[in-house]
């Protein structure tokens, strides 16, 4: 993860006029991080708190609501390990409360936290504690499954096994999640999409949100293999889309792990570059899932290593320029509102 003091000026190197600034948007995927308070900025981690989120969401597009997604922050330091992730939910609830003091700004309307699904049926008490501490904002869990045998590819912070989606305990934990009416967000790599498809078929009542296109890798052993990977990815995305309980998040494709290396340039990516290089991923996923089961996401601040907030939303608007207004409204607002039950 880039350090904020290394990119805070760099990211402003590309400024664009805002396209269709009145379109209402829900950003269903962002994180929050603490950084050292003194000195200003961040040394070892990336500070991204309410003022940073608002700086981005107020940069020109009409962002109404957001959904926080787990990132391993502010876990409890004491008590049983299984309950420690609930600390993150408390952390975000307090930030959401701060946000309500300024209702004209984007409001954190939902929280996707973490619980160890490998606990199986006993994860239910953890989920119930998340609900209690979430004060009406808690919507579900992300237990990231990203795993690769090559050490150059970083495995997920939740320490997954190679085929965690197929583990009996994991699926039993997800059954508890589903029984409570909660959402399961996923994060994995392109070569794990088939595992998720099998999981989705095994648990047809579970609402699954597929993050970041399934993480097409472009580093380590996958460098220079983009077209080969894309062809297999297309097939796997189509098969996944046949599971009607799966929804697609469109975004999170500007991370260094994806291999475009925009983070190494003198200037960040423009919206035209995003469209030219990545439009095929968006349009294929949209063709497979449809607007009813698709939603745009920012994945900030992680994607901020390559592109600024107003630029990435400009790219999305350019990709959907020829679509009808009903489908646009679904992609930018309605699908996320429905999936995460954000209507207040």
How large is the count of helical segments? 10
In CATH, the architecture is Alpha-Beta Barrel
**What does the average pLDDT come to?**
94
Return the CATH topology.
TIM Barrel
Briefly, what CATH class?
A: Alpha Beta
Which structural category fits the helices and strands?
alpha/beta
The portion of residues forming beta strands comes to: 5-15%
Secondary-structure element order, N to C:
HEHEHEHEHEHEHEHEHH
Q: Main β-sheet: number of strands, strand sense, barrel status?
A: 8 strands, parallel
Q: Report the CATH superfamily.
A: Metal-dependent hydrolases
* Rg, Å, rounded: 19 Å
What is the first-to-last residue Cα distance? Answer: 34 Å
Question: What level of helicity do the residues show?
Answer: 25-40%
Biggest sheet: strand arrangement: 1-2-3-4-5-6-7-8
Q: How many strand elements?
A: 8
> How would you describe the shape?
globular
Regions with pLDDT < 50 over 5+ consecutive residues?
37-44
Number of domains: 1
């Amino acid at each position: 993860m880039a350090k904020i003091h290394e990119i805070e000026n760099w990211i402003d190197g590309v400024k664009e006029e805002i396209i269709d600034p009145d379109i209402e948007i829900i950003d269903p995927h962002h994180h929050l991080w603490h950084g050292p308070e003194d000195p200003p900025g961040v040394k070892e981690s990336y500070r991204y708190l309410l003022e940073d989120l608002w700086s981005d969401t107020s940069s020109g597009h009409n962002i109404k609501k957001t959904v926080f997604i787990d990132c391993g922050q502010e876990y409890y330091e004491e008590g049983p390990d299984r309950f420690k992730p609930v600390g993150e939910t408390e952390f975000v609830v307090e930030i959401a409360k701060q946000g309500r003091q300024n209702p004209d700004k984007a409001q954190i309307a939902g929280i996707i936290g973490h619980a160890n699904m490998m606990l199986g049926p006993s994860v239910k008490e953890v989920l119930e504690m998340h609900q209690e501490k979430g004060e009406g904002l808690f919507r579900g869990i992300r237990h990231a499954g990203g795993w690769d045998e090559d050490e150059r590819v970083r495995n997920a912070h939740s320490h997954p096994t190679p085929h965690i989606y197929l583990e009996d305990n994991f699926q039993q934990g997800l059954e508890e999640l589903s029984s409570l009416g909660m959402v399961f967000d996923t994060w994995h790599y392109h070569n794990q999409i088939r595992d998720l498809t099998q999981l989705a078929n095994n648990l047809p009542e579970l609402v699954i949100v597929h993050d970041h296109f399934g993480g097409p890798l472009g580093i380590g052993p996958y460098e220079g293999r983009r077209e080969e990977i894309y062809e297999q990815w297309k097939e796997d995305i189509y098969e996944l889309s046949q599971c009607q309980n799966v929804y697609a998040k469109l975004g999170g494709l500007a991370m260094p792990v994806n291999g475009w290396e925009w983070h190494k340039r003198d200037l960040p990516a423009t919206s035209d570059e995003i469209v030219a290089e990545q439009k095929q991923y968006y349009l294929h996923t949209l063709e497979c899932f449809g607007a009813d089961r698709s939603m745009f996401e920012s994945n900030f601040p992680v994607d901020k290593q390559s592109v600024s907030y107003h630029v990435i939303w400009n790219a999305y608007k350019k990709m959907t320029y020829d679509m009808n207004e009903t489908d646009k409204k679904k992609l930018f607002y309605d699908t996320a509102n429905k999936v995460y039950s954000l209507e207040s």
